[in-house]
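Thread: Newbie trying to understand structure tokens

Hi all, I'm a second-year student working on a class project, and my supervisor (Dr. K.) asked me to get a predicted structure for one chain before our next meeting. I've only ever worked with sequences, so writing a 3D structure as a token string is new to me. If someone could post the tokens and maybe explain what I'm looking at, I'd be very grateful. Here's the chain:
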Amino acid sequence: MSADWSRILTSPEYLGNLYGSLPPSAPSCDPFYVHIDERENSVTLGFDTRVLPENVPAEWREKGFNAFEFHLVFAGVTGLRVTGWDATAAGSIDMTVRAEVFEVTLGSRQSGITFHASTARMARTRAYLASGSA
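---
Reply by user tm_fold:
Sure, no problem. This is what the structure looks like when written as tokens:
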């Protein structure tokens, strides 16, 4: 995991207000959703984690929420490459920012999804009560 993943997620426009300086690590986030939109040149990635924020809202505590999901929308996507997708590929993410460009890899270049994007934004967050353990 790159340091950029943590740096990005700790920004207030992402998850910084909830997680402070300790966002969930990439290995603790399960990518469960990928949407490629060729009309908007965007890729939306959804992640699920059992690592709850340090600044848990009281409502979450009262309802016993133990899981959190968030969706990142990457726009201005170029160089999109899909070379397969399976549970192994879904278990790994790397995000780097170079010269104002997001470089994202889910899985590996041999089996996964890679792309560059000019912007990223937090599209959705949701806390919930998950059954079982993850």
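A couple of things are worth pointing out once you decode it. The longest strand covers residues 119-128. The chain has one domain: 3-128. Feel free to ask follow-ups in this thread.
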